[in-house]
Amino acid sequence: MPVSPPSPRVRRRDLQYDGQRVDASRIKAPQYLHITVPDTDRRAKDGMFVLNVQTNIPRYRRQSYQNVTRSYLEFVRLREHLVAEHPETIVPVLPPERSLISLSDIEAIRTFLNRISKHPILSHDYELQMFIESEFGFLPQQQHYHSSTSRSKTSFGRLLGFGVSKRFSYGSSSGGETDDEFEEDRVAASKAESRLQNAIKCLDKEIKARRGFDVISLCLGTFKLLSKPIDGIAKAGKAQVGGDTAVLAGFLEYKLQHVQTLNQTLDYRSSVVSEYDTAVKSTENKRKIMERLRSSTSINADKVTDSIDDLDDAIMFEGNMKTRMDQVTEVVQKEMVEYRHQSTEDFFRALKLYAQRQISFEKTKLEELILVGGDRFSDAMYTPSPPSLIVKTEAVSGRDDDDDEDSD
């Protein structure tokens, strides 16, 4: 039985479906990099963090990496590389190093990796890929990080790929309002850095004083009736001092590094703006030389050629610096928004951890005090005042009023 050809409507629908399928195949899925820390390996001397990685970035050799072990020192190497390689970004901060890895340290490492993996620039760093894929530990390649001046002259055109007209000049300086905002942020960051350093010194003095007080409290344990509760309170106080040192001092040191990174980023942008202003002045000087040669009566052809080449190079370099300055300014503006968000998040996380520890320590002290007072002390702590006392007071006051009326 012969098969009838499809109708024109069916053919149009098939062609439309094929076109939609082709368009869908052209749409690229967003690139992602997910790094998790499910566990730690405590068999090593200093402890190792175990990482699992999922990614669809084409540069990676695989899409999944399981049980990648990295030490704290390797995390430090990675961060130092990111700070040196990307001075226009505010690189997240690592938690302070400790002899024993706690749950809070694991959570801090997770936060560090999560912020890097979501960063639009840091997540595509080549050494981060080596940090994940290296099978025998991570050691970044020795690179000579030049200043922005030397680096801009050699690699701006290759990295940015712009077409700049040789005869076009960009004028002088960047937007004044933007510079004022960054200058205010830089001054505030400098003040915060100084105050954090003073706060760390004050906290050290307080910790030493509280430790001395706990030592003296242990001496009171010679009293027979108070020996056990005082000994328990002193031990709880000693543990509380250690907890405060871990939480408060750790947070202040963490925040100090965060502010110092912010200062470095703002200083780097200031240096880029200064170099752009220098390039603008150099272009103006080259242009004045050309004007003098033009008005001169005796013109040397070689000098004119050299002056034209110098002016072309100056205008080209000025354009490169303008593009670089705009890129750095745009990145730093986004980094400042993320910095404020991360600062708020870090503060409330540290506050929550500190409050949980304080509640636990105070409960321990309260249990020791209840042992001293017995059941009556426990009832007084947890039983509210009876409402009958209030009723009796009102009755007495009412009877006094009646007596006053009778006397009248």
Automatic annotation (TrEMBL):
User: Per the record, which residues fall in region Disordered?
Assistant: 383-408
Q: Which InterPro entries match?
A: AH/BAR_dom_sf, PX_dom, PX_dom_sf, VPS17
Q: Which SMART domains match?
A: PX (SM00312)
Which GO terms are recorded in the biological process aspect for this UniProt protein?
A: intracellular protein transport; retrograde transport, endosome to Golgi
Q: For the PX domain, which residue ranges apply? A: 28-135
| Any one GO molecular function term | phosphatidylinositol-3-phosphate binding
Extract one GO cellular component term from the record: cytosol
Pfam families named among the record's database cross-references: PX (PF00787)
Q: Which SUPFAM superfamilies match?
A: PX domain
- What protein am I looking at? Vacuolar protein sorting-associated protein 17
Q: Which gene produces this protein? A: VPS17
